[in-house]
Design goal:
The protein is α/β, with parallel strands linked by helices. It contains nine helices and 13 strands. The strands form three sheets. Strands 5-1-6-13-7 form a five-stranded mixed beta sheet. The longest helix is centred in the N-terminal third of the chain and has 21 residues.
C-alpha cells in the first residue's frame, strides 16, 4: 500500500496501461493467427500451425532478430485481443483497411492487393453472385455485401462459407482471391469462380499494437528485404500457385 501511495494514481495508471508491452522481453513476440484459413494459415496433421503465413512469419522473425511464438485466436476477436495485449502481432490474412488502421498499426503489405472473388458450384453461372451469398463475419467482404444490401448467410470461418456453397445453403461465397482459387483447385471440379471481381483492400499486412513502432519497423524492414531479394515472391508462388499476385 505504501508503494501505491508513493507512486500516485497517475503513475499507477501509466504502469497498468504499459503492462501488455512490458510483460514480454524486447525480442520476444507472440504472433496470433486463426489456423483455419488454408493456405494462409492452418493446423497440419501434426497439430502444428502451418501455411504461408507461418513460413513467412518465421523467416521475418529470423531476419528481424526476434524470438516469435505462435498462438491461435478466433478471427472476430483478433483486433480486440491485440489491442488488449494478449499478443503483439497478427498474421492472419488481415487486409489493410482505413477502419482497421484506426485501431491498430500495420506493416507494409506482404500480400499485394487483389480482388475478392465469388465462388459458386460448377455450372451455376454469374447470376449466383446476386443470390444468397455466404461470407465470413467481420471481414471486408462482409462489410461490402452488407452495404450493398445483399442477401447474406454469415459464417465464423471462410471454409464454412465455402462448405455452405457446396451444401446448397448459399448460391455463392465472396472470399479473397487466394482462398477462392485454392478452393476451386481443390474441389475436383465442383466449384468455379463466377460474377464480377470485387476490389476491396490495400493488401495484407502484419497488425501490431498502435504505437508499437519498434516492432512494426523491424518487421517492415524484413518484409522489404524479402521483396528486394525475391524470396517473398517465391513464397507467394509456392503457396498460391504460379499465377499468384506478386510484388
Amino acid at each position: 500500500m505504501t508503494k501505491l501511495r508513493l507512486l500516485g494514481w497517475g503513475a499507477l495508471l501509466a504502469l497498468v496501461a504499459a503492462a501488455p508491452m512490458a510483460c514480454r522481453g524486447p525480442d520476444t513476440v507472440r504472433v496470433a493467427t486463426e489456423g483455419a484459413y488454408a493456405p494462409y494459415n492452418f493446423i497440419n496433421d501434426d497439430g502444428e500451425i502451418d501455411g504461408f503465413e507461418r513460413e513467412l512469419g518465421d523467416e521475418l522473425c529470423r531476419r528481424a532478430g526476434l524470438e516469435c511464438t505462435w498462438v491461435i485466436n478466433d478471427w472476430d476477436s483478433t483486433i480486440p485481443n491485440l489491442v488488449n495485449g494478449d499478443f503483439e502481432a497478427v498474421m492472419t490474412g488481415m487486409s489493410i483497411t482505413d477502419e482497421r488502421d484506426e485501431q491498430i498499426d500495420f506493416t507494409q503489405p506482404y500480400i499485394p492487393p487483389s480482388p475478392s472473388l465469388y465462388v459458386a458450384r460448377a455450372g451455376a453461372g454469374d447470376t449466383a453472385a446476386s443470390g444468397v451469398v455466404a461470407v465470413q463475419v467481420a471481414t471486408i467482404q462482409h462489410d461490402h455485401l452488407a452495404e450493398a444490401n445483399a442477401t447474406l448467410r454469415e459464417y465464423e470461418t471462410v471454409p464454412e462459407a465455402i462448405e455452405a456453397v457446396l451444401a446448397g445453403e448459399a448460391d455463392a461465397a465472396l472470399v479473397d482471391s487466394g482462398f477462392a482459387l485454392a478452393s476451386v483447385a481443390e474441389s475436383d471440379g465442383r466449384l468455379t469462380v463466377v460474377g464480377p471481381q470485387v476490389p476491396l483492400d490495400r493488401g495484407v499486412g502484419i497488425g501490431v499494437q498502435e504505437g508499437d513502432d519498434d516492432l512494426r519497423e523491424k518487421l517492415d524492414a524484413a518484409i522489404g528485404e524479402m521483396k528486394a531479394d525475391g524470396s517473398l515472391n517465391a513464397l507467394l508462388r509456392k503457396w498460391f500457385g504460379a499465377e499468384a499476385e506478386t510484388f
